[in-house]
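Fold it.
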Amino acid sequence: MEEPVEETQPKRVPAKECFINEIKGNETRVAIVASVVSVNRAKKTALVSDNAKEALLKFDDLAKMRGIKEGTILRVIAKPLSLQPVTLQVELAQELKDFDANLFKKVKELWAKFV
């Protein structure tokens, strides 16, 4: 009996969890949590802030922007494009409902002390 052939896809580099001001530009992928400040669907962009710094998100597809509006809190996985201003090419944007941003920040800061 033949064993099934497993199709393997190359693994993606994991996204580095960080705050916007921690992005150095040499990362392959980053993951941030931020609040939407403004949305420009014509340019397929959104401006987000994590209360420390802002970043411009670029979307390649309007479908990825579905449901995004001012005040929405997002978890974003993206590729850094530039640092001045911080510009990220979005791979995934996920709305976080019932999210406690202050608690997230405290846990992240505590976690950084142990890692």
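The chain has one domain: 16-108.
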